Amino acid sequence: MTTNTTTTTTTNLLLAGVGGQGVILASYLLSQMALEAGFDIKQSEVHGMAQRGGSVVSHLRFGREVHSPLFTAGTADILLSFEPLEALRYINWLKPEGILIYNTVQVNPSTVASGLAKYPDRIEERIAEAHAHVLGINAVAIATQAGTARATNLVLLGALSPRLPFTDDQWDAVLRRELAPPILEVNLRAFQLGREAPRPRGRRGLWSLWPTVAGGAPCGRRPRPFRGGGPRGVSTPWPRRVGSAGA
Question: Which tens digit of pLDDT belongs to each residue from 35-46?
Fold first, then answer.
């Protein structure tokens, strides 16, 4: 597939999660993917508390020409959420036809962990009621299958990857360049398993429900297997060559 960088459409991505889940690294890798593919890219600072237990949000925009890193509620093409409550918190940022991909595993925010608040009930049901185009996956279980639960962010990037206009070769080049060798293979494995995440039962799934964003994988067809992969059991997941994982 040849990347189409001539489109005048700007793609808006919102990433949301809890400190310590790798939101910053995921946002960084997406920005490097857009640059690798030849797009103009603008990325906001991460808002919230980039520490374990605090809410972390990142705006990322790419296209032929992008003038601002920020966008407003109701204009996001994609919401990638690392935690169910954060998905519900920011679901109103999506366009009606926008895509939500989220990790279904609950992570208690600091206020809940300290006993100052109660985690809301029926989160997944409320997400399903609030938006039509949703894929929830247990990214922690899939990452554990790859070799470490801490590779959850790569699982979510894998689930997102078929909806973006980046080739397999571009993904391979960026992941191999930005992820340090001790943790590269387990992260490639997590990424591939995320790409193979099952469709939601009882409804039309991610692969056939929406048109691609700016020229990604064709609708109704699963992506071909990513050529990365590797052995299980690597215990340290995501510090990158340019620094530590962060939040």
Answer: 999 999 898 866
Q: For residues 9, 206, 165 and 50, what is the CA-based torsion angle, rounded to 10 degrees?
A: 80
HSE-CB of 202 using CA atoms within 13 angstroms: 1
3-state secondary structure of 199: coil
What are phi and psi for residue 65, nearest 5 degrees?
Answer: -150, 120
CA distance 32 to 227: 19
Q: Does position 7 have pLDDT exceeding 90, yes or no?
A: no
Token couple for 48: 């919230």
Residues with Cβ within 8 Å of residue 130, at least 6 apart in sequence: 88, 91, 92
DSSP string covering 112-136: HHTTSS-PPS-HHHHHHHH-SSEEE
* Cβ contact 95:47 at 8 Å: no
| CB neighbourhood size of 214 (10 A) | 23
* Residue 242, number of CB atoms within 10 A of its CB: 11
The pLDDT tens digits of the residues spanning 174-186 come to 999 999 888 899 9
38-70 b/e (C-beta count within 10 Å ≥ 16 → b)? ebebbbbebebebeebbbbbbbbbbbeebeeee
- Following CA atoms 208, 212, 160, 106 in sequence, which dihedral angle do they give, to the nearest 10 degrees? -60
Distance (Å, whole) CA 208 – CA 99: 12
SS3 141: helix
Residue 143, C-beta contacts closer than 8 angstroms, at least 6 positions apart: 149, 150, 151, 152, 154, 155, 190, 193
From 42, 60, 35, select the one nearest 174 (Cα to Cα).
35
